[in-house]
Amino acid sequence: MDATTLVEGILAGERRALSRAISHVEADSAIGREVLEALYPRTGGAQVVGITGSAGAGKSTLVGAIAREQRKRGRTVGIVAVDPSSPFSHGAILGDRIRMQDLTADGGVFLRSMASRGNLGGLSETATGVADVMDAAGFDIVLIETVGAGQDEVEVANAAGTTVLVANPGGGDDVQSMKAGLMEVAQVMVVNKADLAGADTAVQQLRGLLAIADPGPWEPPILKAIARTGEGVPELVDAIDRHQAYYRESEHSGEERRKHAERQVLAITRAILHREALATARASGALGALVQQVADRNRDPRNAAEELLEAVRREWAAE
Amino acid sequence: MADERPIRVLIAKPGLDGHDRGAKVVARALRDAGMEVIYTGIRQTPQMIAEAALQEDAQVVGLSILSGAHLELFPRVVEELKTRGVDDVLLFAGGIIPKADIPAIEAMGFKGVFGPGTDTNAIIAFVRDNAPQRV
Lengths: 319, 135
What we know:
The structure holds 2 protein chains of 2 kinds.
Chain A: H1 3-11, H2 15-27, H3 30-39, E1 47-52, H4 59-72, E2 77-83, E3 92-94, H5 101-104, E4 109-115, H6 123-136, E5 141-145, H7 151-157, E6 162-167, H8 172-178, H9 182-185, E7 188-191, H10 199-212, E8 222-224, H11 233-249, H12 253-283, H13 286-295, H14 301-318
Parallel strand pairs in A: 1-5, 1-6, 2-4, 2-5, 6-7, 7-8
Helix pairs in contact in A: 1-2, 1-3, 2-3, 2-6, 4-11, 6-7, 6-12, 11-12, 13-14
Chain B: E1 8-12, H1 21-32, E2 36-39, H2 46-56, E3 60-65, H3 70-83, E4 90-95, H4 102-107, E5 110-114, H5 120-130
Parallel strand pairs in B: 1-2, 1-3, 3-4, 4-5
Helix pairs in contact in B: 1-5, 2-3
């Protein structure tokens, strides 16, 4: 199927065209880029919501619970679920469907699993594109579930208008470690597994962190939920709706959209720059010798990196 | 990056099997061979399997079954795939399947049937050699 056929199919509601188009966007193929270009003007209708938090926080279960609640409200849901690739084999086991089995039979839901595909920073690039395709396909809600570790977590969240941070009781260290970027990342916070001891303490900790940050006009609400039973999920969905209203309709909307667009453009630029610079660095003859000098302790790594970047700049200037 | 796209495989268990040891061993072997394996868990209906294959744009669908209901369930999976227009996936099967049933399963469109004791390398090679190109 060529790009035109795919775009027509998507706009006609064909799930097979949607699915194949996502494969192209994920692979960053020429057809994928063409599809995105054609569809982008039709995006903006969906609530794009990122779900982030550390591994084991209950993100998949919560995504399933949010999707069920949205279906009850008559909204259609597209889901992008990201799982980690093995750094050794580059393979992956994508198991998010296990926790959302019942949603597979629901024609108002489309779930796509994605692997993080290594550490080249390309995840934000492709996840944003996949969410855009789902948005243009007409889903009311697009949920992006992040892989749950590292920088990608923040970058994938850049694809979303609203990002929900999932924390757990007893996860104090976790919360501490996210302190720095917390405000930029999350507009809604939820303590999941709230039936476990320490839920209120976790809420307090988050509140404490917010107090020392400067939240700006939107103050992130902090909620409690039990994704497994669905308790607290309607309130979470209400909170997401409220942030979306702020993002889309309030006097701050223009500024928020601009900030979001800037985050997206910069995240993708960073991903492409990262990939291309590393590819050029690897291909340049300089790498092997510099590595050897560092290994022999004749040059420090920072100095070697500067030297390597100089080689990349020379290469690019010559092009 | 288009040329490095890993093969996407859906591993699914139709029917009422209670455990999925074999399916998981195969899933892990394929992952370790660099493939992206979508695993859906046990007790899947043919509709759920076909719908997952569609949404995931899987190039390969592997069905594992222990209950003996393969001659019942496999044709229904094939039918559900057809209904959704998914006509370009490589199908293979594993589990407890009597030799006598293999020709019937192959006639349904399955290119490989792997019983207990199969070397996972044989499955990896089979998938690599036969997976259709996607993008």
